[in-house]
Amino acid sequence: MPAETPELDAYDARILAELQRDARISMAELGRQVHLSQPAVTERVRKLEVGGFIKGYRAVVDYQRLGYGIRGIVRVGRAEYARVVRLVEQTPEVVNAYNVTGEDSWILEIAVIDVEHLDAVVTKFCILTETSTSIVLNVPRENAAVMPARRENIKPSIRKVTGR
Predict the structure, then answer these.
(1) How far apart are the first and last CA of the chain?
(2) What burial class does residue 158 get, using C-beta atoms within 10 Å of its C-beta: 0-12 exposed, 13-18 middle, 19+ buried?
(3) Are the C-beta atoms of residues 37 and 31 closer than 8 Å to each other?
(4) Tens of pLDDT along 12-54?
(5) Rounded Cα–Cα distance for residues 132 and 44 (Å)
(6) From the CA atom positions of the chain, what is the Rg in Å?
(7) How far apart are CA 83 and CA 151, in angstroms?
(8) Are 94 and 125 in contact (CB under 8 A)?
(9) Closest CA to 96 of 129, 69, 51, 136
């Protein structure tokens, strides 16, 4: 039986929000932002790291500035799981890979230099199974902050009509 997940309080949620906005913030500034002392906020961050709520810190890079002119989404049909995983691991252009349910088995996000490079990457996956590729035109939302899930915050977007 998995260990029970500790409850996150409002301070933890604010700390997570601030760190997702700016992971390079100093502990002193983070403490000011969330109204805690530096030692208190440092201890809370350490507990969030040890508890697995914070998996790591990383730089968000600009694909265009790095020379990748095209970002694409490749939908990959049914194929042997291990073969797809191996190919994903061998393909550095795959920046995110999701094994999904539905008509496609995989959704891959790729970054390539140009159309010729796109063709070369997609061809690797076409050898395994059918694929469908879309080119990303713009990204209005990316790397959005994720807050602790709260069941009470879920409300239906429409009201169900009953027979009464």
Answers:
(1) 44
(2) exposed
(3) yes
(4) 999 999 999 999 999 999 999 999 999 999 999 999 999 999 9
(5) 45
(6) 21
(7) 38
(8) no
(9) 136
